Q: What sequence folds into this?
């Protein structure tokens, strides 16, 4: 295929297996003070347990886990100790997985820099020979050689940590810890930073347990929304309810999935809760999460039985176009804009609103599937991949491909809409080459992203992206632009001209006049005039129904 890589087959993305919903807690000053004290106390226990777990390194076994849990039970409770040790184990395992993925990235960076350093200055890339381009100047070459030594040193230290089982974890987050040394650049005072630091290190998380009352014995929310917390043994003096519990004055109401949550707490099924504080807004929130049985994955043919809405993800908008089962675009292209600037909460809200509008459009079209590209920009975020193109590297670094795909899958599962992921190779290039110009008219301006939607949708449906090529202008049997309708790859003689619908014996008009006149004009009547009066039927490349 001229050096083109092999394309992966499209597949239906499985639905989510975990659900999480949040609600605001409108607590009083007394309740807020009690929650801070409990969260700070349990956060200190979690910090000490994490230090002990990291100190054990690879010598950790089930017995040592039980010992740590017994040590925490005396000052808190058995359930609080179980939640703390489980969170500690998950945090250590997450750091370990990140440590395992880092060497592969470092080796890739080292290999790319070494290959470019070996090339002459200013040398152009040779894709056929597999040779990268050289660096533009001697100063850049020197800076990259220094970076090469730094990456090698990082790789050596990382491999030593991996062999020894040593991980580096910061409770509260490393970015927030580093922010303490740059307060003048962020406009944040030490007191404001301290409030964020204490809020991030609080621990108010309790795992659910099926069979217990309302699905959680430690943090309990009744069916009417009454929230109470089982206090640790050291803070039993704060209790205002029986059995050493603290009951909040505020009530909880989950606006999203409230019915599903109510069904679980009524049946005493496990629900995990997390209470957290946002010091910037001065608000308290509670998050409920539970496991759910994922919906069975539909076969690809079933998901695409009513066509598909193809989506091309971009930095500032989602381009969408509906395609029927034959791969023809239907109606007009649509765009759903969002803004990825600002805070993380603002970006999440923008993405959520754009996906909501996309799902409403999909339901209005009657399609049961959305086709997206299976994008992964992990290798493209390297500075060696695009050189000095900082704007493009910044663009792909902030592009939320994984989050957008996961959120679309979760939201589409609630609407009974399947998400089909396709290989992203050459979709923009081939879409612009085969579809952008034919679909552009005086009343419609088709962009490159709109044309990419058609390429994505046709790849999901199993059709080739390329349209049927037209014959030479003013051919003897056809006119220009005839063979532009779609044909399946297994269609016989798809590259030939289409035959007329009527039989050849009935193409000529009825004969009139004398026999001599008829014989004299029979050739022109049955050949040239017949070709001009033939009726040909073909599907339009653009359907509007």
A:
């Amino acid at each position: 295929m001229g050096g083109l890589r092999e394309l992966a087959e499209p597949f239906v993305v499985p639905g989510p297996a975990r659900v999480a919903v949040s609600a605001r807690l409108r607590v009083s000053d007394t309740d807020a003070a009690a929650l801070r004290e409990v969260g700070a106390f349990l956060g200190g226990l979690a910090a000490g347990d994490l230090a002990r777990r990291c100190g054990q390194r690879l010598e950790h076994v089930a017995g040592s886990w039980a010992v740590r849990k017994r040590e925490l039970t005396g000052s808190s409770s058995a359930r609080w100790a179980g939640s703390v040790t489980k969170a500690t184990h998950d945090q250590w395992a997450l750091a370990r997985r990140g440590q395992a993925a880092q060497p592969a990235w470092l080796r890739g960076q080292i290999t790319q820099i070494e290959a470019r350093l070996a090339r002459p200055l200013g040398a152009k890339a040779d894709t056929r020979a597999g040779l990268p381009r050289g660096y533009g100047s001697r100063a850049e070459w020197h800076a990259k050689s220094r970076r090469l030594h730094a990456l090698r040193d990082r790789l050596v230290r990382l491999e030593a940590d991996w062999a020894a089982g040593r991980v580096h974890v910061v409770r509260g987050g490393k970015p927030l810890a580093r922010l303490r040394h740059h307060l003048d650049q962020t406009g944040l005072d030490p007191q404001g930073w301290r409030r964020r630091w204490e809020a991030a290190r609080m621990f108010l998380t309790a795992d659910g347990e099926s069979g217990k009352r309302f699905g959680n014995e430690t943090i309990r929310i009744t069916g009417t929304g009454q929230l109470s917390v089982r206090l640790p043994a050291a803070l039993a003096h704060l209790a205002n309810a029986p059995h050493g519990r603290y009951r909040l004055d505020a009530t909880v109401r989950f606006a999203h999935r409230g019915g599903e949550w109510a069904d679980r707490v009524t049946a005493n099924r496990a629900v995990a809760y997390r209470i957290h504080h946002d010091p910037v807004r001065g608000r308290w929130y509670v998050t409920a999460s539970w496991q759910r049985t994922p919906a069975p994955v539909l076969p690809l043919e079933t998901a695409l039985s009513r066509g598909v809405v193809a989506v091309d993800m971009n930095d500032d908008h989602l381009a969408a176009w509906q395609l029927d089962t034959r791969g023809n675009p239907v109606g007009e292209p649509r765009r759903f804009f969002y803004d990825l600037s600002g805070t993380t909460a603002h970006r999440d809200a923008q993405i959520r609103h754009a996906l909501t509008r996309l799902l409403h459009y999909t339901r209005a079209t009657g399609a049961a599937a959305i086709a997206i590209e299976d994008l992964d920009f992990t290798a493209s975020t390297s500075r060696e991949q695009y050189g000095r193109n900082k704007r493009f590297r910044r663009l792909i670094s902030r592009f939320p491909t994984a989050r957008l795909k996961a959120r679309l899958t979760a939201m589409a599962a609630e609407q009974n809409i399947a998400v089909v992921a396709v290989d992203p190779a050459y979709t923009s290039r081939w879409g612009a080459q085969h579809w952008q110009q034919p679909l552009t008219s005086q009343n419609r301006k088709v962009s490159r992203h709109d044309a990419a939607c058609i390429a994505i949708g046709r790849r999901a449906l199993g059709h080739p992206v390329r349209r049927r090529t037209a014959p030479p202008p003013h051919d003897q049997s056809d006119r220009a632009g005839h063979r532009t309708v779609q044909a399946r790859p297994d269609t016989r003689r798809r590259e030939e001209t289409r035959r007329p619908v009527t039989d050849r014996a009935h193409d000529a008009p009825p004969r009139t006049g004398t026999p001599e006149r008829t014989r004299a004009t029979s050739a022109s009547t049955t050949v040239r005039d017949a070709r001009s009066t033939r009726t040909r039927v073909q599907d339009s490349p653009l359907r509007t129904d």
